[in-house]
Amino acid sequence: MKGNDMEKGFKAFLKRKDIEISARRYLIDALGAMAQGLFCSLLIGTIINTIGTQFHIGFLTQPVAEIAGQAYTVGGLAVAMSGPAMAVAIGYALHCPPLVLFSLATVGFASNALGGAGGPLAVLFIAVIASEIGKAVSKETKVDILVTPLVTIAVGIGLSAWWAPALGKAAMKVGDLIMWATDLQPFWMGIFVSVVVGVALTLPISSAAICAALGLTGLAGGAAVAGCCAQMVGFAVMSFRENRWGGLVSQGIGTSMLQMGNIVKNPRIWIGPTLASAITGPIATCVFHLKMNGAAVSSGMGTCGLVGQIGVYTGWVNDIAAGTKSAITAMDWIGLILISFVLPAVLAPLINHFCRKAGWVKDGDMKLN
Predict the structure, then answer these.
(1) Of 124, 139, 169, the domain-final residue
(2) pTM of this structure
(3) Are 112 and 203 within one domain?
(4) Which of 102, 109, 117, 151 would suit a FRET pair with 281, their CA atoms being 20 to 30 Å apart?
(5) Do 138 and 256 sit in the same domain of this protein?
């Protein structure tokens, strides 16, 4: 009886603290929020830097602050805050009270810095644990303003020192393996990466956060962009008769995740975009050698705000500055436009046409509420 009472008491405590130990809370809510934190820091900073460089805007290219001997541009300051932004976003998704939420800025900075290139994965794991422990002690003492930040930060920094380097290295090894395999077998890996990342984009998880955590760039990053575009543009054009211009914009430069409810009702509407990604992925890797050498998070964004395309362009600029690319060619632009927009807009509706002929897809199946 005592064991049952303890179990009931523990469950009641978790419910009172809004601590929900579930895959949805950690792998959907937290991961999706982390991607938003990355967007508002790393991605925006990268875009600001690219605009400043390409349009020769002095205020955006000149250092505006110097911290510990390191000069930062406006965009550089945004990039530097990616760790805190991710952690605070995760805390927000986990419904952290204010003192826990604000303390996560320190946790995010530590875990991202110590995690190295694989910092986003370290931030995800450590921020989730620090958040839940912080929530557990929040408002449990009369000196909450001291105890809650101390516990949250102590747990976060302790785990950062203990876990972050290993988590970061593990993430980068997996990412390096995928990129190595894609370079070695661009056709088959082009299909695999394009389909998997594209599907992740439409599912209620974050393809952008996955690509960021694995540091997915290069040819593999290009395949990921192809897969995401196939889903977003594919669904946008396929469902035009049901959703008209509003649906075209909301899915084409918003997210194909809007179709998730319809996919649950009829999974066959997913055939067109998924097969389209299986086609455009190897075309990107084998024909146009499309590479994402911008921020890794851009690989999982597709046409959302045109972030994927801006990332590819930023990579071209970086490669030219590094001397590994002589110039941006007409073939580069043709490849990017075909892979991002034209081929998904043609292939997905064409494949879906045959699905309609077979009676698998009917009018109204892709109608957005």
Answers:
(1) 169
(2) 0.81
(3) no
(4) 117
(5) no
